[in-house]
Amino acid sequence: MMSLEPTITVYCGPMMASKTTHLLVDAERAKFRRDSVVIVKPKIDTRYAADSVITHMGLSIAAHSVANADELREITKNATFVAIDEAFMIRGVADVVMHNFMRGCSASVSTLDMSASCVPFEETMKLLGIATDVVKLHAVCVHCGANARFTNAKNGSQPTERDVKIGGPEVYEPVCYRHHPLLNIK
Fold it and tell me: What pLDDT score was predicted for residue 80?
């Protein structure tokens, strides 16, 4: 069943902000509407499983792994709803989402908005530009309990967009502006 008015919803923010949880809820709602649902994750993200999207809380749903935009376009060509986890890791994702939108396919996307170096991800910026809805989420700062809007690399090395180290809570932590070493606002 194709939606009369397609949407592109982008859930963005730091790690541990429940972006993937929101994505899974949207996918379940689309299944209930009897949309043709395709759930996708980047092939390079093997943190929990190669063939599932899994939240930090353990919620899970089967997913297709894609290496690039061409694979994404092929796997979603007949979908009426696409859920894409960790979209910032898929170069060209925004172009495919827009292509699908133009043919009437809705999408929900979860993505970091910036690197641990506070550099916005290019694909995320493109997605924000075409989104019909943007939900900026925050986590809880692991140091003080304030709203965490940033991701910090625990080892002190702040990777750039081109130098992404895949990892979970063992590598990264959600922090507020006071506790991010590059912002260092007191």
Answer: 97
DSSP string, 87-141: GGGSTTHHHHHHHHHHTT-EEEEEEESB-TTSPBPHHHHHHHHH-SEEEE--EE-
User: Does the annotation mark 86 as catalytic?
Assistant: yes
Q: Two tokens at 74?
A: 């092929």
Quote the strand ranges of the chain, DSSP E.
8-13, 37-42, 52-54, 60-62, 64-66, 81-84, 106-112, 133-136, 139-140, 147-148, 150-153, 172-175
Distance CA 10, CA 109 (A): 5
Helix and strand element counts for the chain (H, E): 4, 12
Pick the catalytic residue: 28, 71, 74, 86? Answer: 86
Chain position carrying tokens 């694909």: 123
Stretch 104-128: mean pLDDT: 95
* Helix 93-102 × helix 122-130 angle, to 10°: 20
Judge whether 175 and 185 are in contact, CB under 8 Å.
Answer: no
Q: What's the CA gap between 117 and 128, in Å, rounded?
A: 19
Quick: pLDDT tens for 138-159: 999 999 999 999 999 887 665 5
pLDDT(3) > 70? no
User: Which amino acid appears at position 150 of this protein?
Assistant: F
pLDDT reported for residue 47: 73
